[in-house]
Amino acid sequence: MNKEINQLLDWTPNTELAGLPLVSADDHRYGMRNLAAAVTLITTRDADVRLGLTATAVCSVTVDPPRLVVFVNKKVAACEAILNSGALCINVLSGDQEHEAKVFAGMVEGVHGEARFEHGQWHELITGMPALEGALANFDCRVVKVFDESTHHAFLCEVLATRGQQGGEPLLYLNGAFRRLAP
């Protein structure tokens, strides 16, 4: 078994494939528009300042240990706050939380920074990061590894606490718009 693991760790890309050109950023964006994704709010704090952003780049990694990965653009203020605090909360939005998604995506004029947290009801779990009431799920996490991925950081997180509700419909993002599942 250890030999198999070492072979995976020593893996190198196929040199024939490595020389092939990548698709353009526009072609990639076009293709990704067709990949429906759950809408989340990634929240954190840096000292007493709460920060957050709307994100769809969240994925389960393992159940044991419970780990998720979150990709955050390096340019947003919350990215630096996550690096400083070492913690974040992933709030999976329900279909009736589109307004909160727009607020944290910067789509509501005049609402920035701490004023974003005036929308919705907020509480804290273990880490002290903001957790949205009524979300389908809250994942309270500590960051265990950070990967530099071009324009983003990939935060590998361990889940310390969860809170959620049974049932409910998720808010999705598809083809440049927020969507709900049809009943």
TrEMBL record:
Recorded GO MF terms: FMN binding; riboflavin reductase (NADPH) activity
Domain of life: Bacteria
Pfam families with a match to the protein in the record: Flavin_Reduct
Keyword set includes Oxidoreductase: yes
SUPFAM superfamilies: FMN-binding split barrel (SSF50475)
InterPro entries tied to this protein: Flavin_Rdtase-like_dom, NADH-dep_flavin_reductase, Split_barrel_FMN-bd
Keywords from the UniProt entry: Oxidoreductase
Residues in the signal sequence: none
Domain Flavin reductase like, residue spans: 32-180
Claim: Nucleotide-binding is one of the keywords in the record: no
Any Gene Ontology biological process: pyrimidine nucleobase catabolic process
Name this protein carries in UniProt: Flavin reductase
